[in-house]
Design brief:
With about 220 residues, the chain is mainly α. The chain contains ten helices and three strands; from the N terminus they run αααααααααβββα. Helices cover about 60% and strands about 10% of the residues. Its main location: cytoplasm.
């Protein structure tokens, strides 16, 4: 069995029920009568709630649309993988030999799911008030700043890494137009990869529009 004492130290949480942490760390490939998929389902719902409340209090002037965008930037596979890496979660997951050979410990999908499962397990055992500071501490450690500009930059970086690997080129962002008065201007930006348009988006700044359209392209390439 894995020694997860260091994982508990990173989380600053000790499981009372050790079977629960084992279940949370067990990937479906490990061929046990149990796996972490049910805990993952629970963890996803709880993370959405805790991060939503955190953003509601942190940004009292932000509207629902902006809060939703920030939460979407945190509560996703990329965001959870970042938090999983902060606690070196990949070292502790139970995987099949085949998945181990397939570099499963570094796969974003497996890391993200395991992170949700661990959070779901803590919630199940100790409740929301115990889980909340664990998640918020990890967020503060993993992100220097939490705002629209900083979080959306992950989309551009992630997209560039994919296009360089797959196409040997970087995305081209074109400003298609700007609308509204100077104090409330919005920009429309399109994204082109290998002379093909992958989408258009509008943002309150050129930077935000670029990040929004990078996410569209990223979703298309992944899908």
């Amino acid at each position: 069995m894995n020694d997860y004492v260091n994982l508990e130290k990173c989380l600053d949480y000790q499981f009372k029920n050790k079977d629960l942490i084992v279940e949370a760390l067990t990937h479906k490939s490990f061929k046990k009568p149990y796996n972490n998929e049910r805990l993952e389902f629970l963890g996803d719902a709880v993370l959405n709630l805790i991060v939503g409340e955190y953003l509601y209090k942190k940004f009292p002037q932000s509207n629902e649309g902006d809060l939703s965008k920030i939460r979407a930037s945190l509560v996703n596979e990329t965001g959870f993988t970042k938090l999983a890496n902060e606690i070196k979660l990949g070292d502790y997951i139970y995987l099949s030999i085949a998945e181990e050979r397939n570099k499963g410990r570094t796969k974003a999908s497996i890391l993200s799911d395991a992170f949700e499962s661990i959070m779901g397990a803590i919630y199940l055992e100790s409740g929301l008030e115990t889980l909340k500071p664990i998640i918020l501490t990890l967020l503060e450690k993993s992100y220097d700043k939490i705002n629209l500009d900083v979080l959306f930059s992950d989309y551009k970086t992630a997209l560039q890494e994919i296009t360089q690997a797959e196409f040997g080129s970087i995305p081209d962002y074109k400003i298609e137009g700007s609308y509204g008065p100077d104090h409330k201007k919005e920009f429309e930006v399109s994204i082109w990869i290998n002379n093909q348009c992958y989408g258009q988006a509008i943002g309150k700044s050129k930077k935000l529009a670029q990040q929004a359209v990078a996410k569209i392209a990223l979703d298309k390439l992944k899908g």
